């Protein structure tokens, strides 16, 4: 389910001739445990991972992963971008060497995602939540998801001539925060067309433990400037629209990367012999009251 405003023709085309699951549930509303859950096929109650702070093979059990199963059955398994969550939850190795035939690829420009690369109205560079950029103007002149697509296509070209079957996982960053994307995608979503969340109010009687005050977002320079009270202070309506605009633009940017990857499969005549699974981890909360 997605907002009707969102333009994602490549994902739509893939969905149109795929088995489409419209009632999906996240096992845990946090990145690391949800990824470990679907990559091992086990619930967080079994992996004993509810946050980012343990490695299931040590903490809970030496469970097999999907890529590990393929690897142990003659497949070349390859990881590009964010597949396992980085850090201790994947043993600081993306679960290597168990899951992958060779070391996973991470884009070199990842390290700039949260740095001052967002040019503000003042002409200066900031570390913002909303970050439409001129790609030629950012460090290395590229973005992580663009690099991941290029690497994935190179691997597909290599596997085209290989006798071995392959499992390729491509993990894109967007539309994760910060919303750092090529600025031309912002033009797809004029602010006057952006709707607000239908029910932005904090429910009466909500226990504090059930609420996420989004401290990470509050640390971004553009959000800091709003001086929003903690924990329930509302975001100004005009900034709510800008958040949703940038989220939608980030999705459309991602869609172009998916399109490039699907086109490469066709060009290399691999599409008819390849099973494609398109999924996310736990999705993203787009309530915009805080």
From TrEMBL:
InterPro entries the record matches: Alkaline_phosphatase_core_sf, IDS, Sulfatase_CS, Sulfatase_N
Database matches in CDD domains: iduronate-2-sulfatase
Cofactor: Ca(2+)
Keywords: Calcium, Hydrolase, Metal-binding, Signal
GO MF assignments: iduronate-2-sulfatase activity; metal ion binding
Keyword set includes Signal: yes
Sulfatase N-terminal domain location: 7-284
Family as reported in the entry's similarity comment: Belongs to the sulfatase family.
PANTHER family per UniProt: IDURONATE 2-SULFATASE
Protein name: Sulfatase N-terminal domain-containing protein
Organism: Gorilla gorilla gorilla (Western lowland gorilla)
